[in-house]
Amino acid sequence: MKDIMDKLSLDQQITLDDIPELDLYMDQVIQLFEKKYDDAKRNEDEKILTKTMINNYAKGKLFYPIKNKKYSKEHIILISLIYQLKGALSINDIKKTLDGINHRIMEDQLDIDEFYNRFLQIIGKNAEGFKEDVLRKEEVVEQAVQTMSSGKDDELEQILLIASLVNMSNYYRRTAEKLVDQLAEKE
């Protein structure tokens, strides 16, 4: 399990130091994301970010309009947030979640660098807690399988662990969706 968690590259995040101060063209944004998250891909064919994805985010108004076909540091931060959110939330939920941030950025009412640094700190702590939690779940599953059968059964353990992790993922996703709904109600 430790090998699997290492392969997840949970510590790989786009930091403020990774984002150039000057605006980037779409291809440069894609290169930045591909380079940073390459180790996190499930297989070689997986795309981290594509032109179509970015265009869809723009059409869906997930971030405020770009200027002169270039993406600012703030846009890249927003695209990074979208990248993190898209694994669990629908595009509509991501839009609802980021609407307030987009508005605050355009009104110059948010220090987006500080906000993003806080986000990175939180997900760093989340990664530590996640690793500990998965190892605890692995122990619980091993004990459960041993008590139901005549000893160790790697396949049953793996299936139960998969089911347990997916179950927890669903709990987290559903909780996040309820929070998105609260945001939408406030607006």
Number of helices: 7
How much of the sequence is in beta strands?
Answer: under 5%
State the separation between the terminal residues, measured CA to CA. 43 Å
| Uncertain stretches | none
Q: How many domain regions?
A: 2
Instruction: Quote the average pLDDT.
Output: 94
By secondary-structure content and strand pairing, the structural class works out as: mainly alpha
**What is the N-to-C order of secondary-structure elements (H for helix, E for strand)?**
HEHHEHHHH
Shape: elongated
Pfam families: DUF1836 (PF08876)
Organism: Cytobacillus horneckiae
Protein name: DUF1836 domain-containing protein
What are its keywords?
187 residues; mainly alpha; 2 domains; two-stranded antiparallel ribbon; 2 strands; elongated; DUF1836 domain-containing protein
Topology summary:
Layout lengths: L1 H6 L16 E2 H12 L13 H9 L10 E2 L1 H13 L5 H16 L5 H37 L5 H33 L1
Antiparallel strand pairs: 1-2
Helix pairs in contact: 4-5, 5-7, 6-7
